[in-house]
Automatic annotation (TrEMBL):
<comment type="similarity">
    <text>Belongs to the prokaryotic molybdopterin-containing oxidoreductase family.</text>
</comment>
<keyword id="KW-0411">Iron-sulfur</keyword>
<dbReference type="InterPro" id="IPR050612">
    <property type="entry name" value="Prok_Mopterin_Oxidored"/>
</dbReference>
<dbReference type="InterPro" id="IPR009010">
    <property type="entry name" value="Asp_de-COase-like_dom_sf"/>
</dbReference>
<dbReference type="Pfam" id="PF00384">
    <property type="entry name" value="Molybdopterin"/>
</dbReference>
<dbReference type="InterPro" id="IPR006657">
    <property type="entry name" value="MoPterin_dinucl-bd_dom"/>
</dbReference>
<feature type="domain" description="4Fe-4S Mo/W bis-MGD-type">
    <location>
        <begin position="7"/>
        <end position="64"/>
    </location>
</feature>
<protein>
    <submittedName>
        <fullName>Molybdopterin-dependent oxidoreductase</fullName>
    </submittedName>
</protein>
<dbReference type="InterPro" id="IPR006656">
    <property type="entry name" value="Mopterin_OxRdtase"/>
</dbReference>
<dbReference type="Pfam" id="PF01568">
    <property type="entry name" value="Molydop_binding"/>
</dbReference>
<keyword id="KW-0479">Metal-binding</keyword>
<keyword id="KW-0408">Iron</keyword>
<dbReference type="InterPro" id="IPR006963">
    <property type="entry name" value="Mopterin_OxRdtase_4Fe-4S_dom"/>
</dbReference>
<dbReference type="Pfam" id="PF04879">
    <property type="entry name" value="Molybdop_Fe4S4"/>
</dbReference>
Amino acid sequence: MAPITQSRTLLRTCPLCEAVCGLELTLDADDHVTSVRGDRNDPFSQGFLCPKGASFGHLDEDPDRVTEPLIRDRTTDTWRTASWDEAFDYIAERFPAIVAEHGNQSAAAYLGNPNAHTVAGTLYVPILLRALSTRNIYSASTADQMPKQVASGLMFGDPLTVPVPDLDRTDYLLMLGANPLESNGSLCTAPDFPGRLKALRRRGGRFVVVDPRVTRTAKLADEHLFIRPGSDAYLLFGIVHTLFAEQLTDVRVEVTGLDELRAAAAAFDPETVAARTGVPASTIVRLARELAAAPTAAVYARIGTCTAEFGTITQWLVDAVNTLTGNLDSPGGAMFAMAAAGGIPRTRPFRPGRWTSRVRELPEAMGELPVATLADEITTPGDGQIRALVTVAGNPVLSAPSGARLDAAFAQLDFMVSVDRYVNETTRHADVILPPPRPTQSPHYDFALLQFAVRNYARYSRPLVPLGDRPSEPGVLARLAAALTGRPHDGADGVDPLTAVDELVIAGLLHKAGLADRRGELLGENSTEQRIDLMLRLGPYGEWNGGTLNLQVLLDNPHGIDLGPLRPRLPGVLRTATEQVDLAPQPLLDDVARMRDRLDHAAPELVLIGRRQLRSNNSWMHNIAPLVSGSNRCTLQINPADVARLGLGDHAVVKSAAGTLTVPLEPTDAIMPGVVSLPHGWGHVDSAQTVARAHAGVNANVLTDDSVVDVPSGNAVFNGVPVTLSSV
């Protein structure tokens, strides 16, 4: 190929949040990204671009990123670069020996949020986990959305069958604990979320936000309601109670458990829950009536409600209300996306708690244990104690509860491997760091996020920049899986680990589909692309399933393909034992007793919540200079009345059951009295990232308590944490 001597414009999908926006990148002759624009020809994002996407080039070439494997000398706590072969040899020497001595359960893995945004995270991390052969699997899911997935699994039989609001057609949207104008949406893939909300109002619809803060999203709404953190489940039960009491229900899908749901709601009349939530009883009744009367309506709740004590009950009641008002699986209501390249359909109903953690006996969900107990499993001696850890694109020291405990726990591991682009607060404990390629060097297809899209859509982006002599991210994970088990990882036996993995998966899928003789028809420049082609062909729009879609169609349409609005999918997507929507799953009915008990408890005087920031994404985007200025500040937002009442100055000491921080105050009427807010993901004191360290902030998870979890899902509790404030 002739050398490139001038700039060129290339297309790809932004991998930095859940909005899956199309980007138009200009690269110079040296493969540097010189400009970023929104792709106006993308049928889904239509040119929308946020500050994170605009900074794509800065992230792609961050000078602090790790570019070669690093090996740490534990004696001197210093790093040295190594060749890929040397790094994998070292892993193959150390890791299998630990497992051989202490058993498979002495190994563990932690998966960070960026895995949901990469081809490698979806297709090759499962291979890595199978190589580990351990039940000690942890991820950011149990610090984020696990309550939604457990609730969906119990109601619909599959935790990936998650209804999303049909934003483009709804007449009424009730939003709790979500701030998509800053997060760009979550478990609701919707590029230009602000534009879609404005369009809702322009067509005469109504938009109501329930949140302890007047967020940017709340400012756009027709109505904002303050609510005490952690009480969303009470509010929703008050709405359910009213729908039954006033005979406003209009169930249009086949369900079980209607009477059991009515009985569970009996104790939560509007007057009773008003005292708990701070939302007047008359307002709760009005919300129920408005949802029932609207031509179409949807309730949507996100991380503020998931990361609370009753997170799973809240997510259950969200879709119970959608069902009771006739809006589940109906245009303009809450509907199920139909992704072009989904996974293998579940054959058995979802069941959480198939095993429990060793120390605290917390339940498994979706094959994972709660990250809130990871430190326990490392520090508690005994059979099955974690001694070796693999992390992939994660920084739980900053993003998991009781971060200081995790920091100390990681320091006592016998061996740790991290696949990561940075030396950060977590990976600084690793013995080996294996860096992934730059984003421009990787392919992109949103397997996970398009399962939650508000419109059916598909887009594939090939790598824009050659890999050179380094392995791809799939290659890194495939070689790592081999090294962890002591198998040849370098192809010296004539078998490339990546090709071997892909051929095994392809053969298995073809055999299951009865198409073993069609292997030669698969398209792609490598085995990874052939796997993507196979998934597209077997998908609901695929040419081997009565449609026309394959990889070549996406390559021929680099701006993406609009596959149409959401359409009704029940009962086809249900995997419950009855093949009906379960409105009263027993594990959730059992947990309602905890809610009733809390009605008699006095609310704490002051509680802590987190908050989203537009130019941030958890802990991994604070090393980009344009993104750590302006409103992206690590301050404690507090109502001025609380500042005066407590006699505070510019800073305060914040204390919880888990820890203590000294923080700068940001007085604002945008937060309700009795509530304070710290942003998530800061505290880069021990980071090798230059910009992040210069804007370190404080780690809010010094204050969160890993002993408190949402019981059905094991999810960490970050919102509604009792705290006290005092002068510095």
